[in-house]
Amino acid sequence: MTTLSAPKGNTKVNKLGLEKAVYKGLDSTLCNGCGHDSISARIIDACYDLSIKSERVAKFSGIGCSSKSPAYFLSRSHGFNSLHGRMPSVATGAMVVNRDLIGIGVSGDGDTGSIGLGQFKHAVRRNAPMVYLIENNGVYGLTKGQFSATSDVGQELKHAGVNELPPIDLCLEAIVADCGFVARSFAGDPKQVTTLLKAALSYKGTAVIDIISPCVTFNDKEESTKSYSWGKTHNERIVDATFVPFYEEITVDYEEGEVKEVELQDGSRIVLKKLDRSYDPTDRMAAITLLEEAKRKQQFVTGLIYIDQNRVDLRDQERLPETPLVHLPPSALRPSKESLVKLMERMK
Amino acid sequence: MSVAEPQTSPVTVGAGEPVVNDFSITIATKNGSGSQTANATILRALFKMGIPVSGKNLFPSNIQGQPTWYTIRASKEGFTARRVRAEILVAMNKVTVYEDVQKLESGGMCVYSDSLAYTPNRDDVTFYKIPAAKLATASGLEGKLRGYAENMAYVGVLAYLLGIEIEELKGCLNWQFKGKAKAIEPNVKTINAALDWAKENLTKTDPFRVERMDGTTGLVMIDGNTAAALGAIYGGVTFAAWYPITPATSLADALNDYLPGLRTDPETKKPNYSIIQSEDELAALGMVLGAGWAGARSMTSTSGPGISLMSEFAGYGYFAEIPAVIWDVQRMGPSTGLPTRVSQGDVLKTYWLGHGDTKHVILLPGSVKECFEFGWRAFDLAERLQTPVFVLSDLDIGMNQWMSEPFEYPEQEMDRGKVLTAEDLNRLNGGWGRYKDVDADGIGWRTLPGTDHPLAAYFTRGTGHNETALYSERPEHWEANMERLGRKFETARKLAPAPIEDRVEGAEIGFIGYGSTDPAIVEARSRLAAKGTKTSYLRLRALPLSDSVESFVRAHDRVYVVELNTDAQMTQLVRLDTPELAGRVFPLNHNDGLPLTARWITETLEKMEA
């Protein structure tokens, strides 16, 4: 551990000697009370707590209300606000050529569940290294209130009428696509969101967190399963995850359930608290069953639903060298003149 | 034409002056039958004998069993364009033999397999019937492999009839199969058996022959897609994402073939590059833009249908100003079109690919040598201009073998464009803005993600932005940004490869062409000049059009734009470029999916000039 200079006055700093303000972004232009703003605040918290250097982070997003949010956190990180549904491909390209980047991708339920479903599945399948956040509000907020693919059956909107199509469960889709880190949370649960973000930031591969993030303008009706009040009353926590960063040791005491320790690739450990004794987040079939049952009951389960640390991430699949490809010197990029002469001789 | 009696001996036709090194051969077989090896062997043997040759594959959109044709042109004058009719036919396909024979030039000759149940039905053609299946038994192969060997039978017979040097044929087999005896032996045996049989049983009565000459010394033979891949490799390509599509796939295949040998780190043994086969063309360009944004030289290769899919990202790359290289190996459209036929139909589409006011830099290679050169130059342009650069090749250049001068190594350093490092930012002490036009060339300075400086970061977006990349809907910001992009495009006009001109004093007619039409135009001009018609020629190598195009149009009474598309696409751009002279610019466009012939140019010109 490095010794840092004393902070000025009473201002708290992290291990890099930086105040939390450094991790902020521009003022949000989203509606007052938007769930996405809570998530942005949690990203700031998580990155500050983990002493991540903002300059190492690359932010990606598609198009939609949630995709605007990367401007509202980590102003010292480069951002790429791309095209509707196409964030995964852009992130994949960037993360492969610079393996040192920490990727955070922000998407929405329309961006990922409709137009982006294909790229989402393939990025997960490739295990592109990034935190993949779906800020899920069950509507198309930016175009003012159409159903999304995660909308509930029977959900009602002003112009769109009543939805009769079954919702797509993005956590289930992720598990089926062999995602090794699948979690769900709720924007109004700061402790859980922050904990899951920290775990996701340390996971080697695609870490998907589907965060129910109520739309105060177009979707906050009592009955909608995505609203704040419904979430707080129906919330079933299945796994309480207390993230333990590498350089700190915290033990939490719970009265019920087992304590399961999962070691992450960078040496950090997650201590999982099972609220349900028989639930095992490393059991894929159990995770799928859990989600299917929850769908039937119209509930959402939160916490770390599935984790698999044996999947090789894309950087290793591609056998990328330690030096990021973008930092290779010119001599490593252009083969020699002799090699061209040799090739030409062979073709004569 | 009457049905002749079954032949026992060849008809004596065409006695007279020998025709040396100046004819075309059409070989009609079935695809997937192994004829590719045989044809490539003949082509290369003639090349090694010093005879200028070109080979064209006319193949179906199919894997096995459909008719396929290969044309080899030998031209002592060095002309490599397709010719309308061939003098020599090798007929190995029962389904197409009658039609194939119909197309032969009068006075020509035909070698045909006895398995076709074909009765010669032209008396102005010399016929040679060969027992291909029987000759193939000499290979020692069984079953399907022996079927492949039947093609070597016609190689041996042609060797006898035309005088192709056997040692050169054997050398070519050795070269093709990289010295593997097990693959070479059966083929050599068949060729020898066929040659011996032909000496015993055939009397040559046609005039066609080859003779060693000195027309190919120092040249290489290569296809355009391999040349493009090599050019990209010598241009430092570091990332490629692609989706398979005819006729672009072999470009990505060539990257996969050559990169391991040229870009593996000698110490770590790890690849210094990454190639990802994406789930579709949309994702391919998305990955390329992500990689280019992060600072890597990135490319994709596709054809028309893929270009359509890439429309949205192309516009994004233009507006958000991200370097990328996109090869479009053009095939016939619209829609799925003819996947295995040539066209130049994507000119207007790629020039304006994307909604809103979008325009792109396009490179137009006219030879395999330029495929190599533009392979590396495209990266320099893309990174200097911070924009997607399209390279429009086509199926004829991309998938056929062409003679060429050996490729020249790019001596100048790679141009990585305007990138600010952390040190630069320290020196600038604040005041950096991503889209500020500090150099008056329309190009801003960028930083790469991961740069260790608190002021390095900026937001890349497809939405309206101001000079410091902040979101903005302000009318003055929008206009200023679009004006700057216009200035950047003018910078591109100067940096892009200039046209190649051949101005002939006193010529009233000027040809403008681009891409694979060059061999036909060159040959047509030669024929026209021999008849006393002078023409000038300007070969475009890029869009936006160079200023020299206007001066060329001004200097001639009539300008004919030669191209392979139905809507005369480049003609429209030339007319738009100098609207007051549009009346003297005429389309000379042809689009049936086949490579252009000189005869079509001269005959059509004659009609239009009348």
Layout of secondary structure:
The complex is a heterodimer of chains A (348) and B (610).
Chain A: H1 35-49, E1 57-61, H2 65-68, E2 78-81, H3 87-97, E3 102-108, H4 109-113, H5 117-126, E4 130-136, E5 139-140, E6 146-147, E7 156-157, E8 161-162, H6 170-176, E9 181-186, H7 190-202, E10 206-212, H8 228-234, E11 236-237, E12 239-244, E13 259-263, E14 269-274, H9 284-297, E15 301-307, H10 314-317, H11 330-333, H12 337-346
Parallel strand pairs in A: 1-2, 1-3, 3-4, 4-10, 9-10, 11-15
Antiparallel strand pairs in A: 5-6, 7-8, 9-15, 12-14, 13-14
Helix pairs in contact in A: 1-7, 3-5, 6-9
Chain B: E1 19-20, E2 22-30, H1 35-48, E3 53-58, E4 67-75, E5 88-91, H2 97-102, E6 109-113, E7 126-130, H3 132-136, H4 143-163, H5 166-176, H6 181-201, E8 208-209, E9 220-223, H7 224-234, E10 239-242, H8 249-262, E11 274-277, H9 281-294, E12 298-302, H10 304-309, H11 311-320, E13 324-330, H12 347-351, E14 361-363, H13 368-385, E15 388-394, H14 395-399, E16 401-404, H15 422-428, E17 459-461, H16 475-495, E18 500-502, E19 509-513, H17 518-530, E20 535-539, E21 542-543, H18 548-554, E22 558-563, H19 569-577, E23 585-589, H20 598-609
Parallel strand pairs in B: 1-8, 2-5, 5-6, 6-7, 10-11, 10-12, 12-13, 13-15, 14-15, 19-20, 19-22, 22-23
Antiparallel strand pairs in B: 2-4, 3-4, 9-16, 14-21, 18-20
Describe this structure in words.
The complex is a heterodimer of chains A (348) and B (610). Chain A has 348 residues and is α/β, with parallel strands linked by helices. Chain A has helices at 35-49, 65-68, 87-97, 109-113, 117-126, 170-176, 190-202, 228-234, 284-297, 314-317, 330-333, 337-346, and strands at residues 57-61, 78-81, 102-108, 130-136, 139-140, 146-147, 156-157, 161-162, 181-186, 206-212, 236-237, 239-244, 259-263, 269-274, 301-307. Chain A has an eight-stranded mixed β-sheet with strand order 2-1-3-4-10-9-15-11, with helices on both faces. In chain A, strands 12-14-13 form a three-stranded antiparallel β-sheet. A two-stranded antiparallel sheet of chain A has the order 5-6. In chain A, strand 1 (57-61), helix 2 and strand 2 (78-81) form a beta-alpha-beta unit. The longest helix of chain A is centred in the first third of the chain and has 15 residues, at 35-49. Chain A is globular, with a radius of gyration of 21 Å. Chain B is of the alpha/beta class and 610 residues long. A seven-stranded mixed β-sheet of chain B has the order 11-10-12-13-15-14-21, with helices on both faces. Chain B has a six-stranded mixed β-sheet with strand order 3-4-2-5-6-7. A five-stranded mixed β-sheet of chain B has the order 18-20-19-22-23, sandwiched between helices. Residues 1-12 of chain B have low confidence and may be disordered. The chains are: A alpha/beta (348), B alpha/beta (610). Chains A and B meet through strand 2, helix 3, helix 5, helix 11 and helix 12 of A and strand 9, helix 7, helix 9, helix 11 and strand 17 of B.
